[in-house]
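Supplementary Note 3. Input sequence used for the single-chain structure prediction.
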Amino acid sequence: MSTPVSKGIVLVVDDSTDTLGLLNEALMKEDYTVLVAMDGVQALSIAARLVPDIILMDAMMPNMDGFEACIKLKDNSELNDIPVIFMTGLSESEHVVKGLEVGGVDYINKPINLDELMARLKVHLKNARITRSARGALNEIGPMAVACDIHGQLLWATDSASLLLAELSQLENHSDDHMADLIGQWLARKPEKHSSLRIDVGRSLQLRYLGQPSPAEFLFRILDDDELRARNALRDGFGLTDRESEVVYWLSLGKTNREIGQILSMSPRTVNKHLESIFPKLAVDNRTAATSRCLQFLNQR
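The predicted structure, written as discrete structure tokens, is reproduced below.
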């Protein structure tokens, strides 16, 4: 008889042995791997040794409560993308608000409805895996991308974006808080997907809003002046549209249709449709010739 494949690792944090026993049994029946902790200190220690896929966190516990534990998790770059679901009493609405403010993705009321819990676990595990996959893909293909919360505070960044942010932090007239304020004010106006924000934070940058990979995350691609100058030169030099200049810019960097689609939030098929319009404007008939034509043009400039 084959051993069931685990649906994921769940860390349950609660100071009640009855609750731990109930959830441990229910989750194991659903083929989850279960870790348990009785306070926030234990939870952080366990998570550092064996990273869980999701955490069920009691709000009120001795030694370190769930709110403080969640804050420390979100401050740890190795653990901050673990979704945390808070468990709280029916009458403790202030706990619900505080749990979401410190980085929780959801909450469930006690006494716990196991069917509801399993449904929420499934949704948040799926969302977390999609987000991790998207981050991995962005890191692989190389664009500068960041995710912020609704207030503009940085949640994560690709490697190339992290390098840029480190450079900005060394500038005398740069402030991370000022940058967050500008982004937060813009998000408050509910911008449309693919719209852009131009900011000057010690260096002129353009942020392209790509959408929300999860309810609490707003994803941006950072365009620096070098990229903008190259794209504008290609646009003006060959009579391209703004979207065509984006596609051909990444084509000139050797990206595939799939990679270009991931960077620009479009399907590979849409990328190909753009290329069909671009080739005649460049007076070429294939990708290799188009790449060569663009590189030659940019080098001459």
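The radius of gyration is 23 Å. The chain is about 50% helix and 20% strand.
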